[in-house]
Write a structure and sequence with these properties.
By secondary structure, the chain is of the alpha+beta class. It has eight helices and 19 strands. It folds into two domains: 226 residues, Rossmann fold; 117 residues, Nucleic acid-binding proteins (OB fold (Dihydrolipoamide Acetyltransferase, E2P)), CATH 2.40.50.140. The strands form four sheets. The protein has a six-stranded mixed β-sheet with strand order 6-7-8-3-9-10, sandwiched between helices. It has a five-stranded antiparallel β-sheet with strand order 13-12-11-14-19. It has a four-stranded antiparallel β-sheet with strand order 2-1-4-5, with helices on one face. Strand 16 and strand 17 form a beta hairpin. Helix 2 runs parallel beside helix 4 and helix 3 crosses helix 4. Bound molecules: adenosine-5'-triphosphate (ATP). This is Maltose/maltodextrin transport ATP-binding protein MalK. Keywords: ATP-binding, Nucleotide-binding, Sugar transport, Transport. Pfam families: ABC_tran, TOBE_2.
Amino acid sequence: MGHLTLEGIGKDYDGNEISRDIDLTIADGEFVVFVGPSGCGKSTLLRMVAGLEDITRGQMSLDGERINEIPPQERDIGMVFQSYALYPHMTVAENMAFGLKLARTDKAEIRRRVEHAADILQLTPLLERKPKDLSGGQRQRVAIGRTLVKEPAVFLFDEPLSNLDASLRVEMRVQIAELHKRLGATMIYVTHDQVEAMTLADRIVLLSGGRIAQVGAPLSLYHFPQSLEVAEFIGSPRINTLPVTVVDPGPRRTGVRLPSGEPLAVAVLARGLAAGDTATLGVRAEDFVAPDRAEARLTARLMVAEKLGYETLAHLQVEGVEGTLTRRLDGLAHLEEHQAVVLGLAGDHCHLFGPDGRACPRQVEIPGIAH
Ligand SMILES: Nc1ncnc2c1ncn2[C@@H]1O[C@H](COP(=O)(O)OP(=O)(O)OP(=O)(O)O)[C@@H](O)[C@H]1O
């Protein structure tokens, strides 16, 4: 079992509150990813779960038992670190067995567990090699193996792929997802890479300034972000934002005026907004619509077209909007530099954020995705 409960967890360093008001329940077998910008407190929270940091406030329980005071080695929790720090003079098998030997585990049992972990991680042919004779990905698999042999109820991963190159990261990401499916164990994974978070997580916990900004399934955070901060963190390219003025805060649609002066009825509840307020319209790169289906239009000029083969990212300048907006187009779109482009907007495909950054609740249904 690996059912974790965090209630009112907080952490201070030298009188500074680093983590605060963390309330979170992680179900047995769930894959949860802590994500957020650098310094938001992801590692601190993970290290508190591991027992490597004291908890200043709140209660942490594993399978109903309080674990605040239980030392790391006595928690049924295993951690895979960013730097895999294998012992260079030991073979792969010895590296994996080391923790079990220290814990005086029976020799036959150690052999069984090492062989089993090697089989799962495809390390069997490498068991007698030394770390210097392994690739980066293989070393990372040994580091995972070292944790796997402990057979913990909860696996913690602290940015385990950040030392690997891009293609290896993708490969290891798939292997970690397969490992989770195969073991069915509870896993908590820390990363600042939102693609890793989106692809691995059953649920994402997005942290900001030591607090939870939003918890939910990856696509819920993508389609129903509760704040501008979440909307901007989740999704690549970053969500487009433009300043608008609220003209009609209606009950199901909110009328706004675009920088071009055109009106648009956005499918959101105008909670807390009044006519005359300045708000932020959010439009994902794929959510612009063809001009003939548009409810409002923006005239833009193409600055740069990034042709990625399967899609083109058009970076566009719009009068009255700072920076550029990005529109995603399928395939190799035919675009000329500086050409005029009409960006079509539809109220169902936009987000609206108030002056405090809070999202106005969207009044749209997306099949299979919870609000
Ligand atoms: N031992 C410590 N003493 C004092 N402050 C610390 C200590 N460890 C971390 N902090 C501070 O706590 C905050 C959160 O750090 P943490 O490492 O948890 O962030 P993070 O989200 O994991 O960042 P990153 O993605 O850069 O690793 C930071 O401001 C950091 O400087």
